[in-house]
Design a protein that fits this description.
The structure holds 2 protein chains of 2 kinds. Chain A is built from 13 helices and 2 strands, in the order ααββααααααααααα. Chain A is mostly helical. Helices cover 78% and strands 3% of the residues of chain A. Chain A has 2 domains: 2-57, no CATH class; 74-316, MetI-like fold (Orthogonal Bundle). Chain B is an all-alpha fold. In chain B, helix 8 packs parallel to helix 14 (256-289). The longest helix of chain B is centred in the last third of the chain and has 34 residues, at 256-289. Chain B is globular and about 75 Å long. Chain B starts with a helix and ends with a helix. The chains are: A mainly alpha, B mainly alpha. Chains A and B meet through helix 1, helix 2, helix 4, helix 5 and helix 6 of A and helix 2, helix 3, helix 5, helix 6 and helix 7 of B.
Chain lengths: 317, 292
Amino acid sequence: MSYESETRFTEPETTYEEVRQRVSRVLNDHILLVLLGPALLVIAAIFVYPVFQLVKQSFYLTIPGVPNRFIGLRNYTQMLGRTEFWTYFGHTLVYSFGSLILSLGSGLAVALAINHVVNQRIRNIYSTLLMFAWAIPIAVVAMIWKWVLTGNKLGLINMILMDLGILQHPYAWLANQNLAMALVTFTDAWARMPFAMIVLLAGLQSIPGHMYDAAKVDGATTFQTFRAITVPYLRPYLAIVALMNWMFAFRAFAIIFPLTSGGPGTRTTVFSIYIYRTGMINFNYGYASAIAVFIILISLVVAIVYVTKVMGGVQEE
Amino acid sequence: MSTENESYERISYESRQRFWNVVESRYVVHIVLALAVLTVIVPIVWELLTSFKANDAVYNLTYLPRDPTLSSYYEVLIGQQYWKALLNSLIISTVTTIVVMGLATPAGYAFSRYRFRGDNVIFIGVLFSRLFPPIGLIVPYYQIMSWLGLLNTLPGIIMAEVYLWLPLMIYIMRNFFMSIPADLDESARVDGCTRLQAFRKIALPLAAPGIAACSILTFLYSWREFLFSLIVTTDLQSMPISVAVYKFVGDVSVQWASLAAASVIAVVPTILIVVFFQRYIVSGLTAGALKE
C-alpha cells in the first residue's frame, strides 16, 4: 500500500523531467528543422503554391461561368500578338526608367549634400524630413499629389500659378496626354528618392576619410577627388539602388492606380494596371496570368543580376 | 583624354579649386537640401492645411484655413466610420509584425550559422521570393482567398502581408546575425549550452537592435501596403486605412477636406515612427539592400 503510493508520488515528476529532456534533445538534434522549418513551410504555402496556380492558369482559357479549358500557349501567343501589349510595355519602360533616373539623380544629389553637412543634428533633421516621402502610405502619396495637381481651381499648383498671373484658367494637369505620364513618373520617383538617399549615404560613409586627406595633399581638385575616390567607392551602392528602384518601379501599382487609373485613355497604363484590369475587372484570369508570367520573367532576369551581386559576399566567407 | 588634360593645365589649380569650393560650399549644399525638403514637405503640409478646413471652406481658395476646425476629422472618423479602418490597420500591422518576426528571426539565425545540404539554393530561393513581383500574384491570391472564404477578412490580408514581408525580413535578420561573431555561440556551446540555448540566450539578446529594426520596418511596410489590401477587401469591416483613403476618390464629388483628414490620419503614425526610430529604419533598409 505505502509502496504504491510512493511510486505514484514520484513517477510524474521523473517523467516530466524525462519528457522535457527528451523534447529538448529532439529539438536540438533537429535544430535546423526547428529554426527554419516553420518559415519555409509558410513560404511554401503562401508563395510557392500561388505561383504554381498562376503558371498553371496561364495555360487555360478562363471565361466566367464556363469550365476552364486547356489551350496550351494560346494566351501567350495572343498576348504577344496584340499591339496594346507592346504599347503598355513601352509605357512601363518609360515609367520605370524615368522613375529610376529621377530618384537616383535626386537621391545622389541629396546624399552628397547631406554628407557635407557637418552638424550631426542638422544632418538628422534633413534626412528625417526627406524620409517622410518614403514613409507615408504609397496610396496616400498618390492622393496627396492628386490633390496638389487637381485640375480645377482648387488644386495647389493651379492656385499658385493663377495667383502669380501665369495661368488665367485652371489647367487639368493629369488629363494632358503627355504630361500625365511625366507626372505619375515624378510622383513615383518622389516616393522612391529617400531609399536611394539612405543607401547612397551609407555608401558615402563607408569611404575612409584618409582617402580624401591623401587626395588633398596630392593637390587634387574636388572634382578629381570625386571622380577618383567617391565614384569608385559608390559604384556598388549605385548599382544596387538602380537595380532595386528600377525593379520596384517596373511593377509599381499603388501610385498610378489612385492617380490616373491608367488614363487619360490608356496613356499611363503600365503592366500592373493592365493585369489588374484584365484579371480583377474583366475576370479574364488566364490571360492576366500570362501577362503576370511575362512580368515575372523580366523581374527574374534583373533579380538574377541582383542576387549574383549580393551573393558575392556569401560565397567568399 | 589628352585634350582634357591640356585644358585642365591651362586653367590654374587655384581657379579650378575655387570653382569647386563654391559648388561644395555651405550655401549650395543647403540650397540643394532646402529645395529637396520643400518638394517633399509642401504637398504634405498642403494636405495638413486642407484637413483643418471644413469641406465647404475648401472653395474659399485660401492657402491657410480661415477658421481652423476639426470637423473634417470628426466627419471621417465618426461619420464615415473610418475609425474601423484605423483599427483594422493597427491589427493587421501588429499581427503581421509578430508573425513575420516570429518566423524570420530563427530562420535568419539558421541561415547565418548553419551549413547544410542545399543551404545556398534555399537561401537564393528566399531572396527570389522577396524580389518576386507581387502584382503577378493578385489573381491567384484573389482566387485562393475566395476558396478559403478569406475575402473581406483580416486573416486574409494578414496572410498576404506575411507573404510580402517574410522573405525580406529573413534576409535582413540573417545579415544582422552575420554581424554578430559566431565565436560567442561556440563558446557558449563549449560551456554546456545546447544549440537552442545558444540561440535563445546568446544570439537573440545581441540581435535585439536588428529585431527592433525589422519589427519597425514590417509594421511600416504593412501599414503602407495598398495592392493586396485592395484585392482582398471591399468594405470597411476589414479594410485598412491605406485603401480606405483611396475609396474617397470613388465618390461622385470628392470631399477634399475629408479626404485630407483621412490621409493625415493614415500618415501621422508613419511620420511618428520615422521621427522616433529613424536610426533603426536606416539600419534595416541598409541591411536589406546590401550584402553582409
